């Protein structure tokens, strides 16, 4: 199965509503590797790595997010191992500090 890495930026009301925790929990339950963090511009950024169908399903779920979120846009870009390596050492999926 093909492994892919995608960088995802989610915009809307996505901070202060548990979006990062929801994304990390959902991604981990799906067996994905990566990380998530808030950005100072009010968006949430994530890197998702795994099999193409699972990453695609996770990106689809990002359009909904947790119940309190109001997602306006989900931007998806190809990413590589350098971005994935920003996660905490020894963790499959990390919640990173805001940037």
UniProtKB/TrEMBL annotation:
Signal peptide: none
EC numbers on record: 3.6.1.7
Active site: 20, 38
EC class of the enzyme, as a word: hydrolase
Cited InterPro entries: Acylphosphatase, Acylphosphatase-like_dom, Acylphosphatase-like_dom_sf, Acylphosphatase_CS
Alphabetical UniProt keywords: Hydrolase
Reaction(s) catalysed by this chain's protein: an acyl phosphate + H2O = a carboxylate + phosphate + H(+)
Superkingdom assignment: Bacteria
GO terms assigned for molecular function: acylphosphatase activity
Domain Acylphosphatase-like residues, every copy: 5-97
Annotated family: Belongs to the acylphosphatase family.
Protein name: acylphosphatase
Species, as recorded: Rhodopseudomonas palustris
Lineage per the UniProt record: Bacteria, Pseudomonadati, Pseudomonadota, Alphaproteobacteria, Hyphomicrobiales
